[in-house]
Design a protein that fits this description.
Blueprint lengths: L22 E8 L1 H11 L2 E2 L5 H9 L9 E2 L2 E2 L4 E2 L25 E4 L8 E3 L9 E3 L2 E3 L1 E6 L3
Parallel strand pairs: 3-10
Antiparallel strand pairs: 1-10, 2-10, 3-6, 4-5, 6-7, 8-9
Length: about 150
């Protein structure tokens, strides 16, 4: 039976930009909506990533040896960050041709360390590491942003 480690990412977006974000690894299985709710109830929100420095900080918060896809606080309704409902700005965040949200059935996940490689992915694109039921994707790790 396939097992996934489940991750939530927490970050402090309300801190001054000179301070690094703080992230919390959560070892649970959640859908994107469940992960968002968990982060909002217990921390601040799912992680937002604004530049390569923030991506590097996030990578450094991962448990040693862990690699895999993770939920981030970006959703595919006009590609908006969960935290503060702000639009993803600029084209440098996405792989070429992304986001395309084929058949309105893709969810934003990434397992890459380059910010420019963020992609929207289908079930087959994450190699059956997640399950789909009623349009919800299960089994991804996530980080939450720490509350101030």
């Amino acid at each position: 039976m396939f097992h996934l480690i489940h991750l939530f990412i927490l970050g402090l977006s309300s801190f001054p930009s000179c301070l690094p974000n703080q992230y919390q690894f959560i070892n649970m299985t959640k859908t994107w909506s469940q992960a968002q709710l968990y982060c909002r109830e217990n921390y601040s929100d799912l992680v937002t990533i604004g530049n390569q420095t923030e991506m590097d900080e996030l990578i450094n918060a991962l448990p040693a040896g862990w690699s895999g896809p993770a939920w981030i606080g970006l959703y595919n309704i006009s590609w908006t960050w969960s935290l503060n409902n702000t639009q993803l700005e600029g084209s440098g965040f996405w792989d070429v041709g992304q986001p395309d949200n084929v058949n309105d059935n893709e969810f934003c996940v990434t397992q890459y360390t380059d910010l420019a490689s963020v992609t929207d992915a289908t079930l087959s694109a994450v190699h059956n590491a997640i399950l789909v039921s009623s349009g919800n994707v299960f089994g991804l790790l996530f980080f939450c942003i720490l509350a101030t």
